[in-house]
């Protein structure tokens, strides 16, 4: 494992958003200190100070400076440690924009409808959530086929990338 300077991850074991960051740090081969937060019974002073806007995990603290929001943290890791391990985002600006689009789609479209499919207040709300989840998965699958032309095994091509990490953490 490479040293990434002073890297600390504030997380919670069951969080798919935290898992994204763990996966990215692991693919990059970066070592870090992990701090488990108890987000139900009491968040630490460090978390409240590091993420005063949302008070949520994950937070990555790099040399004392906090970075919040899992997708932004992935991009930060890729840029701040560009010389370490594989790149998560494609080097081509257009492909990079496409990867960012689909990662945002996963969080803005797929995730809310999937949550509604089992957290909806009524059976109708749950059914609507499921319908929207399946439609979102269909669109994602079509995009995956498009990206996989030439039989690339993963969203980003031959190696694990940004969208694979964003989606894989939810699986
Ligand atoms: N959009 C955020 C979502 C993070 C999130 O929802 N974290 C949850 C754990 S899974 C949390 O910290 N919840 C505490 C709270 O809502 O007070 C991200 O991608 O990092």
Automatic annotation (TrEMBL):
Family matches, as InterPro entries: Glutathione-S-Trfase_C-like, Glutathione-S-Trfase_C_sf, Glutathione_S-Trfase, Glutathione_S-Trfase_N, GST_C_Tau, Omega/Tau-like, Thioredoxin-like_sf
Gene3D superfamilies the UniProt entry points to: 1.20.1050.10, Glutaredoxin
Location of the protein in the cell: Cytoplasm, Cytosol
Keyword Glycoprotein: no
The protein's enzyme class: transferase
One GO biological process term: glutathione metabolic process
GO MF, one annotated term: glutathione transferase activity
Known EC number: 2.5.1.18
Keywords: Cytoplasm, Transferase
Catalytic activity: RX + glutathione = an S-substituted glutathione + a halide anion + H(+)
Keyword Transferase among record annotations: yes
Residue ranges constituting the GST C-terminal domain according to the UniProt record: 92-171
GST N-terminal domain: residues covered: 5-85
GO cellular component terms listed in the entry, alphabetical order: cytosol
Function, in words: Is involved in the conjugation of reduced glutathione to a wide number of exogenous and endogenous hydrophobic electrophiles.
Record-stated family: Belongs to the GST superfamily. Tau family.
Name assigned to this protein: Glutathione S-transferase
Species: Miscanthus lutarioriparius
């Amino acid at each position: 494992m490479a040293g990434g300077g002073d890297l600390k991850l504030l997380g919670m074991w069951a969080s798919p958003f935290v898992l994204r960051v763990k996966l990215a740090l692991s693919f990059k081969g970066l070592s870090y200190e992990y701090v488990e937060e108890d987000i139900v019974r009491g968040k630490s002073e460090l978390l409240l100070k590091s993420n005063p806007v949302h008070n949520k995990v994950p937070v990555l603290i790099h040399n004392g400076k906090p970075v919040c929001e899992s997708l932004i943290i992935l991009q930060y890791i890729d840029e701040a440690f560009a010389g370490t391990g594989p790149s998560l985002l494609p080097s081509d600006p257009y492909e990079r924009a496409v990867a960012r689009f689909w990662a945002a789609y996963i969080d803005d479209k797929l995730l809310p409808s999937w949550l509604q499919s089992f957290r909806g207040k009524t059976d109708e709300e749950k059914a609507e959530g499921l319908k929207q989840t399946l439609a979102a998965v269909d669109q994602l699958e079509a995009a995956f086929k498009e990206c996989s032309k030439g039989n690339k095994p993963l969203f980003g091509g031959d190696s694990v990338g940004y969208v694979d990490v964003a989606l894989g953490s939810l699986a």
